[in-house]
Design a protein that fits this description.
mainly alpha, 4 helices, globular
Length: 81
């Protein structure tokens, strides 16, 4: 789990850095997971999310799909004002 200031910076890291090598070879490291296994959500400045919060967000997206509460790269929601 990590905290980023914006989706563009995170996307750049995930898809345009050495991290992309891990993504390409993920099938060698992980079993195929049918349900959502990643989740993004906005947090207030200074907030440090907990693993419990992350689990709740992941469960939420698995049950409800992408919303402003929990989403993924393919269906992002804007940062709340």
């Amino acid at each position: 789990m990590s905290v980023w200031t914006d989706i563009a910076s995170l996307k750049n890291y995930v898809y345009k850095s050495v991290h992309v090598e891990l993504i390409r070879d993920r099938q060698a490291w992980f079993n195929k997971y049918v349900d959502a296994h990643q989740v993004l959500w906005w947090i207030p400045v200074g907030h440090i999310p907990t693993t419990e919060e992350a689990k709740e967000k992941l469960e939420y997206i698995q049950k409800h799909g992408a919303t402003e509460n929990a989403f993924y790269f393919g269906k992002p929601f804007p940062m709340p004002i």
